[in-house]
Amino acid sequence: MHRNMYDTDVTVWSPEGRLLQVEYAMESVKQGSACVGLRSSNYAVIGALKRSVNEMASHQKKIMEIDHHMGVAIAGLTADARSLAKWMRNECLNHKYVYGQPMPSKRLCDDLADKHQRTTQTYVRRPYGVGLLVAAYDEATGPHLFQTCPSGNIYEYYATAIGARSQSAKTYLEKHYETFPESEKDDLIMHALRSLTGCVQGDGELTKENGSIAIVGKDQKFILIENDDLTQYLDRLEVEGGAAEGGDGDAMQE
Amino acid sequence: MASLHLNAATTAPSQHTKYPIVTGTSVLGLRYDGGVMVAADTLCSYGSMAKYKDARRIRTVGPATLLGASGEYSDFQSIMDMLEGMEQQNDNFDDGHSTDAQQTHSYLRAVMYQRRSKMNPLWNDLVVAGPNFLGLVDKIGTTYTDNFIATGFGSYLAIPILRKKWRPTMSEGEARGLLEDCLKVLFYRDCRALNRIQIAKVTEEGGAVVSEPYEIETDWSAASFATTKGGLEGDGGW
Amino acid sequence: MTSLPLPPHSSPRPLLTSPLPRSALTHANGIQRLPIHHSEPHSMAVPASFDQQPGADSIDHGVTEAPYERRFSPYDFNGGTTLAISGPDFAVVAGDTRMSTGYEILSRDVSKLHPLTDHCVLASAGCKTDVDQLRSVLDIRSDMYRHNHQKDMKVTSVAQMLGNTLYGRRFFPYYSFNVLAGVDAEGKGAVYSYDAIGSFERTHFSASGSGQSFVVPLLDNVIVHKNRQDEKRELGAEEVVEIVKDAFVTAGERDIYTGDKLEIMVITKDGIQKSTFPLKAD
Question: Which residue from C minimizes the CA distance to A71?
Fold first, then answer.
């Protein structure tokens, strides 16, 4: 991305009608490690690849719980995501205090999008450099999967992926999403893992250290599946024989 | 019952409600087979004066919530404004989410508790009803849910009747009959009650509906109303 | 309308018996502080009428006193009794389900027990609106703890948090009398006893609320073996539950605010077991 004279302030247009600072922020999402999300008619699952700066460092957290019925996977600036997650948790707690029931996920995501949008139009602010996949389950409307962008756009999906090399995951998900509505919890988790395998950098592998999955749904509070809890699913993946490499999913059964 | 403080005008102006001025009396509510029914009369009193005889104290909030209020009528109107604002916000979001009776109940508790904590209460007892919900919130934020609820004088005069006659399997007609009986007793003995009433119901199928006000039949021929106590002629006592 | 002089009292009763000077007991806005402990005299505890004249009866039936103007009180007394007893690897916590105001029963099935985690239960009696608020605040704080530390709070931490939360409202207290029960990190039963403004202590057993004075002497004898010659025996959870039932039947006989139904929770390291037991509804 080259610099030009219209890209130093979020509130200044380029002559082509673009807000370059906002577009740069969108770029930072693409540089974050991959996150996938998918849902059935009862559950929503998010998965992410965690990075560590070197072998001696821990892996960066990629999935955060917002409330018992909601969680986010993040791609981009982790610090920005933390501040957004904190805000979302607060909104959920407030809503629960005032209305006695969990925050409706669409309501929160719309508010979240507005919060993003304000930064693109307000002096001395910068856009959040992070994209979120929000997985949630509402008692009234069932499971949901939303994607937010630094620009303030928000989309709802049956399945999607964001972050570095996420195209491979998207290809996988596009191929299989029609079977998702009837899928059981474990099937969704396996789909998430298979779609993630194509997003791993270079000759790396999806391991219990760098993999991260979360599920939420009907009679299922948000749970994070990481490390040893992830092993059984990775073992199944291995039995399948390194399925879904490159996202073509030839070896897929089910 | 708070007596009206006649010297209020001479004291320094205060933003805080320390006592109610224009008040509505009891609100009754009960669950029946298929829904919840709420009833109240249409009187608002100014101290002991029967000032407003067409004050509608039961309102709908959204499609399937009823709100009945006793206590300060202006505070009730301001609560309705708040709830209408909330409804408008729901419409504006256009996300299909609407606030149900249980959430309205919880919201009102939060409002009432916050106000009482500022020592500036909204002087009401509120009955909140939904198709499968009946709850009360009072002026300090106390809440409970029950199969039948009565505020004001109703807690003395209607609750004993309801305890005796209420059944979970009551039909709509039986429920209405029972509430009218209770309101009749209240009209006989509560000097701030009126025989002009409204009945409201909320069901899963039909949502919330409030009747137009109507008068209930009263019968003053009962011995205790017709005969002076002790049979003494002309002592004026009952 | 001038108010009539109050009838003279033969021996003027002091309004407050706290050792604090009179000036310290009155807020700048004229509000007198509530009693801070439930063992303080009833006349101070209920109802919280802020502008009461010294010597005025705390319950006015509307006929005995000079004309009065009803002032707003942010507190109500909704009654009820709670009790918790700790064992070697369990804690039993119980509360009745009656909710009253004045001489009225508002509802017969309102729980006084509130699980905060899978191994920790808060039992509270007093002013229902404050109890509800306190529960909400604690729920929010324990949720935030869970988000920040990725684990549930230990009973010891909940105990400290409750103390801090209550003290945070030192000058406008939560009018709630709390007993906290659970199992600690070692799996031992833990019971904590509180006053309304956050002073607390880990105890063997604790009872709180309107029937406290009927329950405590009984448990002093049966649980703690005070003033007894026979050998003290370790009681199992089932035996303790039976004692709890007896204690509430006893309290329900003499305390008008205790009755309708008893809710019992037995907390072990494996979780919370709930049961109920009918009490008299009179």
Answer: C147
pLDDT at A177 over 60: yes
Q: Which residues of chain C have pLDDT under 70?
A: 1-70
**Per the confidence metrics, is the pTM higher than 0.90?**
no
* ipTM surpassing 0.90: no
In A, which residues are within 8 Å of C136 by CB distance?
A: 97
Contact check, Cβ <8 Å, B144/C128: yes
Instruction: Kindly state whether residue B44 falls inside one of the protein's structural domains.
Output: yes
Distance, in angstroms, between B130 CA and closest chain A CA? 15
Report if residue A7 sits inside a domain. Answer: no
A139 occurs within a structural domain: yes
Chain segment B98-154, per-residue pLDDT in tens: 999 999 999 999 999 999 999 999 999 999 999 999 999 999 999 999 999 999 999
What pLDDT, on a 0 to 100 scale, did the predictor assign at position C210?
A: 96
Segments forming the whole domain that contains residue B199: 18-210
Cβ neighbours of A107 in B, within 8 Å: 93, 95, 97
- Our count of domains for chain A comes to 1
Nearest chain C residue to B140 by CA distance is C74
Residues of B at the C interface, defined by Cβ within 8 angstroms: 1-3, 5-7, 17-19, 109, 112-113, 116-117, 119, 121, 123, 136, 138-146, 155-156, 159
Kindly report the average pLDDT of chain A as a whole number. Answer: 93
Domain membership flag for residue B132: yes
Put simply, the chain B residues between 75 and 114 with a CB less than 8 A from any chain A CB are 93, 95-97, 99, 102-103, 105-107, 110
pLDDT tens digit string along B165-208?
Answer: 999 999 999 999 999 999 999 999 999 999 999 999 999 999 99
A106 to chain B: closest CA residue? B95
High-pLDDT (> 70) share of chain B, %? 88
Three-class SS string for chain A? CCCCCCCCCCCCCCCCCCCHHHHHHHHHHHHCCCEEEEECCCEEEEEEECCCCCCCCCCCCCEEEEECCEEEEEEECHHHHHHHHHHHHHHHHHHHHHHCCCCCHHHHHHHHHHHHHHHCCCCCCCCCCEEEEEEEEECCCEEEEEEECCCCCEEECCEEEECCCHHHHHHHHHHHHHHHHHCCHHHHHHHHHHHHHCCCCCCCCCCCCCEEEEEEECCEEEEEEECHHHHHHHHHHHHHCCCCHHHCCCCCCC
Query: What are the DSSP E strand ranges found in chain B?
Result: 22-24, 27-32, 35-41, 44-46, 49-52, 58-60, 66-72, 124-130, 133-137, 143-145, 148-150, 196-203, 207-210, 214-215
CATH at residue A171:
3.60.20.10
Q: What is the mean pLDDT of residues B64-70?
A: 98
Residue A25 inside a domain? The answer is no
Predicted confidence band of residue A10 (pLDDT cuts 50, 70, 90): confident
Residues of A in contact with C147 (CB under 8 A): 65, 89
Token pair listed for B127: 């009955």
The string of pLDDT tens digits covering residues C69-88 is: 467 899 999 999 999 999 99
Residue B42 falls in the annotated catalytic set = no
Residue B200 is part of a domain; what is its CATH number?
A: 3.60.20.10
Task: List Cβ neighbours of B96 (8 Å cut-off, separation of 6 or more).
Answer: A106, A141
Asked if the structure places residue B95 within a domain, the reply is yes
C32/B contact by beta carbon, under 8 A: no
Summarize pLDDT for B139-157 with one digit per residue, the tens. 999 999 999 999 999 999 9
For residue B107, give the nearest of A98, A107, A110 by CB distance.
A98
Express each pLDDT in A180-211 by its tens digit: 999 999 999 999 999 999 999 988 999 999 99
Mean pLDDT of the A2-31 span: 89
Residues 6+ apart with CB under 8 A from C249: C279, C280
